[in-house]
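Table 4 source record.
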Amino acid sequence: MMKDETRRKLTCALALLAGFSFGPAVPVAAVSRDMLHDVSGEIASLRQARDEIMYYHQAQADVKRARADLAEAKAGLAEARRGRAEAAANLKQVRDNLAAVQKQLQAAQQALVTAQQISSQRTQQALAAQRAVAALAPSVWQAQAERDARQRQAEALQAQADALDREAEAQEAAQEADLEARRVAAVQQALAAVNYEQNRLLDAEDMVNDAMDQLDSDDNGTSREWEAQMEALSRQTEQAEAALEGAERRLDELQEQLDALVDAREQAEDAERDARETVREYTQEVADLKGEEAQGKKDVQEAAAYDAEAAQWLTDAEAWQQSALKESQRADYALAHFGEGAGWQTGLEYDSWHGKGSGYQLYVPYSFSEQGRIRNRRVDFGLTTGYITSDTHLSHDHVAGWTDTQISATLHNDHKQNSIRYNLTLNLPTGQSEFYQNSIVPEDLGRFTDFGSGFQVTPGIDVIHHFTERDSLTGSLQYTFRSSYEYSREVPGTRVNPGNVFRQELSYLHAGEKAQYRLGLAHTQTARSEQDLFEERQLAEAGEAPALGNLDHRGLGRPWQRAGRLSYKDGDDWEATYFYNNRITDRDELSFFGLWNLTGAASGYRSQAVHRSGWGAGWRHHMNKTMDWHVGAAYKDVTSGWDPLRRELNTGEYKYYSLLFGWSWQMGEKEKISLDGEHYRREEKFGDDYEGWKMLFTYNKTL
């Protein structure tokens, strides 16, 4: 954005750069260069030339900055659009995720209800299986007890059989031992009976066999008894085993039924556990999904908030981009139309003097200026007029009314190195060209020496060569066509036909950042003029009545009468000027000037060449960015004054001393006020002196 200070200074400088001034816009001799207006205006134009370059650089910097801001805004907008798209995609994603979670939750809740129903069924089935097992278990336990009793009975009988068998084995072993002992005894007895004779061994053997047969007979009797016991015990054992087998079959049948029921119960319990686990899993899944749903809702809220932030970011970025675009366009426009604008100016000036004579002038100026474009060409327009009240404290001295109105136009054909400007100025005779000679204000005492100069047209051309941005050489030509007008109220109908004026000027300008100066050389040439003369008649002789209209203001007989016609040519006017300003600190500026002027002697009436010179210095202090004050001192030396039209301006040599002071305040972006004053003393070589004050209040308004 263009800095407010830059825009404010630029717009407020428009009026000054456009040539706002309250003086005449037609060519004038250097005699009109007064200290309060002309010299101060020239010094101000140096500062304005410097500031114009500074403001142009700032305008260029504003364009560069605005374009950089626009590029940044576009990048920000692109990023915001990406962020908005990402936020929208993220919002859609989290909403889809939430919908998926809610769908899964609904399915899980339905599955949980189903699993709970199945679990309830499995629980009933498990309970039924448990009841069936519990109902059959006593029968199994009873069969098992019966089997165990039968088994104990069979085992007891088997134990008895085993004991009897062991007893039989022991008896048999004892019998064998006894039998063996008997055999041995029988053998010994038989041998002893045969006396161990070899030939009777057979007899001994028969004796042993007979003894052994007897022993076998005894042994057989014992075996039959044991066998009878064993047979009885075996029958009991078989019966017990048969009963045991029956009990075991019953137990096996019941156990098989119980095992089937237990298997069914275990299956039912497993199914119930599985169902409960499924319920627990679905319950956990539902809880997890509810957590995910809550998190999803939170994510949706956060994503929606982020999406809203991204949307706001996008809105802000779009607004920023639009603002940056507008500011860039404004900066481009401001640079392309640099120096253009409009404004008006008014104020109040009061001049008073005393000494050789006394008087005052009160002037209210009005000016308007506009700088714009027509068919893409820079064109400046200006209008200046004012209302004047002037009094010299003499008879027939008072003048009140409008001054002449100047309308000016300048067509620019500006280029980087060479520029041409076409000027046209019209002086409209809205002022008062007819007034008494007593109304004329001597030079340097008031703002106006006379109050109207007829219709004038001044075309002109300026050719500017720019060596650098800060150095230029300007050549100017202008020609003023002046029409005749009545100029005196002493003798009505007295006219002057002023000669046309040709002016050529060459000036060099350096508008440095710190130091600025302008060197100028001008030459003005006036064509031959003609005017009606008038003179004072003698008092009317006795009996002679003066003609009406030829009496003075008292009606007495000192009438004025025509005295012929004068044809004359003003001498050429040469002027050299030097104006200088230096910003010695950030807040202080030093300025000085030098003037030299030579007006050649006129032809057609008695006159002589006039030399004028002047110099001065000033100091300006900027109190802050909006307020400053200045002081100055000036000196002017004039050898004489000659004017056949306004004879009251004819004067001898005089010196002019002045002290200047002023204050200005930039009240806002478009308004500025200033107060300037001058205290002067005009010392004449022959005659009395003048002393007086000039006060000027100015108000500038940029539109």
